[in-house]
Write a structure and sequence with these properties.
CATH class of chain A: Alpha Beta
Helix content of chain A: 25-40%
Largest sheet of chain A: 7 strands, parallel
Largest interface: A-B, 70 and 70 residues
Structural class of chain A: alpha/beta
Strand order of the largest sheet of chain A: 3-2-1-6-4-7-5
CATH topology of chain A: Alpha/beta knot
Oligomer: homodimer
Radius of gyration of chain A: 16 Å
Strand content of chain A: 15-25%
Shape of chain A: globular
CATH architecture of chain A: 3-Layer(aba) Sandwich
Chain lengths: ~180, ~180
């Protein structure tokens, strides 16, 4: 028997879309502010589903789950991860602050915290704001956030695609959760 | 003064494309096996640049850096991260094994190692094989690899975009390197 045999669909132990909301009610929350590319938004839904993201606020011009381009990269994850549209990221942040979330904007700013293993405190509620592909998170939204987090980089560009950057942050939060080591 | 002020281009301390190869000669190596989407390949170059990937082998049908779609998502990173085309992933793996690399295929397989913090041993040389978007890494290539690594997931899909999955693996390797904590 080839021990490297790929897992079949049933062997992946996927949860149902119906169970997702209940199982992942205390996961990470994302706030997408004026994200331009529907492909990026869909990609973030797909990664969010993989790591139990609880909710995605789609703010400003960010497209909605009925967008065909979003669906091409979300591959159905837009049906499992709950989401809602709000006019501004400010509305989302105000709602989340009332619920006790720490709001972190992903941005290369002067006093940003560098993301690293064990950055996220287990049991604490976090929401991450992800900005526009060109402009980043708006200055107004950065001012509303509790802090900026930055992914340290060492190359010639210092520029990550927002869906790739989101994947890294979502992954770090996921690892901080109780259930991660016991999967 | 607003301490959350975004960093300007000079403040990002980007290295030059000329210095990249020398500074990142002992970074992670990637082997892309028959990757279908030029956008994904370009995206992997961009993330690779951010975290000092040393070399990318573009195998089989994987497109080359002169591809216009690749350039749209690589945003110039195809000029800093060195790469070469080979007909098969097997050729790349054989070359890398002779140079002392541990070869890991990113695949959901039966005896795969679950990726986690501190998976990568500092100072050890690693190459990661990333497969086709639909078929994954080929069975032949999995058999040639030293092990499979798998990113644990808890959602309804158990399916990450290959560029997002690559970002997570590249990030975990990056953190294992000496320089990461002192940036």
């Amino acid at each position: 028997m080839n021990e490297n045999r790929k897992k079949t669909m049933p062997e992946l132990n996927r949860i149902s879309q119906e169970n997702y909301k209940e199982l992942h009610k205390d996961g990470l929350v994302l706030v997408l502010e004026n994200m331009r590319s529907a492909f990026n938004v869909g990609s973030i839904f797909r990664t969010g589903d993989g790591f139990g993201v609880s909710f995605i606020y789609l703010c400003g011009i960010t497209c909605l789950p009925d967008n065909r381009e979003l669906q091409k990269t979300a591959l159905g994850a837009e049906l499992s991860v709950p989401s809602a549209h709000l006019e501004t990221a400010r509305e989302a942040i105000n709602l989340l602050k009332k619920e006790g979330y720490t709001i972190l904007a992903l941005e290369q700013a002067h006093n940003s915290h560098l993301l690293y293993s064990d950055y996220f405190v287990k049991g604490k509620k976090y929401a991450i704001v992800l900005g526009n592909e060109v402009e980043g998170v708006s200055e107004e939204t950065i001012a509303l956030a509790d802090a900026c987090i930055e992914i340290p980089q060492v190359g010639a560009k210092h520029s990550l695609n927002v869906a790739n950057a989101a994947s890294i942050v979502i992954w770090e939060f996921f690892k901080s959760k109780t259930y991660a080591p016991t999967i």
